[in-house]
């Protein structure tokens, strides 16, 4: 029986990456497929994923899960909690890589001094001997994220909405919004009382 091209690629990835592919499937692909199969609305999924990614980019590590939990509590039924948390989990490596751009954006907006990212400065921060410069660096990164986050949210929603429309249509087991009336007109019998 001949192998399909996709199967061949997966086999090659498994050989090269070892346990990475099963881990990605178990932690990312399987939960995403469960979300899609439950038939959630694409708008809600796109909004929730955009919220999860945007909050997941918060420049202080370890705070993003709390922020996502607070957003879920505030938005309640307007967001899809598993999508928010999955997006937050997926975006964690990107969060670390965007700390410096957020810092530089905050410095640019305030005209503040350039915070040097040296091993010595990071060591002082980790040892609790952070200087005033490090505190301003954190504040600049927060300001950069705060200014960029609405734009990130809007762009992500615009990009994710067509993606989720396609994915939900392709993988959903349940219909999106049934347009079948609860009662057909033939089932309704109007009783006229004699007065």
From TrEMBL:
Q: Transmembrane residues, as ranges?
A: 45-72, 84-103, 142-164
Q: What is this protein called?
A: DUF2062 domain-containing protein
Q: Which keywords belong to this entry? A: Membrane, Transmembrane, Transmembrane helix
Residue ranges constituting the DUF2062 domain according to the UniProt record: 32-170
